[in-house]
Backbone:
């Protein structure tokens, strides 16, 4: 376990030793900007304060609910799902997580206090939209522009990493309906993705499951060839423009169509 950094179980439990995010380590050493640490999915951090000699002295620094009190004010009675699985990102002293109601929350890494949270638009005047929790979010930065990308129900959303505000000129008021943009096959009525997006260079990449397809690992729901395929799509991180769609079932003229 030496030199490895893990967030286990409920992600909002942070175990601290004698180090803080404001210590002398550089950004590369203390940040965790991707779901598995980096694009290579190494799940590794060079932090060395926790080792075989100090691991027995660890204490819980703070705890935070999957639905912090600030969110409960917006979603009365909301509780985190029993199977909430989330790995937060850590960038410049902030932890970014997908909450139990699907909204993104930024926490102070040293205290666990809420710094900001996304406030989705109201749905039919019945209060802010709610979505299922996801396993993680994505981080992107270009100069002074840093953003968090996340799934919120069927939508891909873009948030300012420092303030949590949506970008009004990105997609439609900061959101892209993935049931409608980038699919060119009929019959798609919805979309879900429990794993969150990834960002490669300046492209936000999403997979997911288009409705009416459901969980095909479930024996009660049989896969059919007429079901909408899980095509992979890329969107411009800066503008939200749909850039490309990779057809997992190749079309005529595409590689592999003849097989």
Residues:
């Amino acid at each position: 376990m030496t030199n490895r950094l893990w967030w286990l179980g409920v992600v909002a439990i942070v175990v601290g030793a004698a180090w803080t995010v404001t210590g002398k380590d550089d950004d590369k050493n203390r940040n965790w900007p991707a779901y598995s640490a980096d694009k290579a999915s190494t799940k590794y951090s060079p932090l060395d304060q926790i080792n075989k000699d100090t691991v027995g002295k660890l204490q819980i620094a703070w705890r935070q609910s999957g639905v912090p009190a600030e969110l409960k004010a917006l979603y009365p009675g909301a509780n985190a799902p029993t199977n909430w699985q989330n790995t937060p990102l850590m960038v410049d002293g902030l932890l970014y997580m997908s909450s139990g109601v699907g909204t993104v929350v930024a926490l102070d890494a040293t205290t666990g206090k809420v710094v900001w949270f996304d406030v989705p638009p109201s749905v039919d005047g019945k209060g802010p939209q709610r979505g299922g929790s996801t396993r993680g979010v994505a981080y992107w930065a270009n100069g002074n522009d840093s953003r968090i990308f996340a799934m919120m129900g069927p939508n891909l959303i873009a948030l300012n990493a420092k303030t949590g505000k949506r970008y009004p000129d990105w997609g439609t008021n900061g959101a892209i309906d993935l049931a409608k943009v980038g699919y060119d096959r009929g019959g798609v009525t919805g979309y879900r993705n429990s794993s969150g997006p990834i960002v490669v260079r300046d492209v936000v990449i999403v997979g997911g499951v288009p409705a009416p397809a459901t969980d095909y690992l479930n024996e009660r729901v049989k896969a059919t060839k007429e079901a909408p395929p899980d095509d992979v799509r890329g969107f411009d991180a800066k503008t939200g423009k749909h850039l490309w769609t990779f057809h997992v079932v190749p079309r005529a003229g595409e590689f592999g169509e003849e097989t």
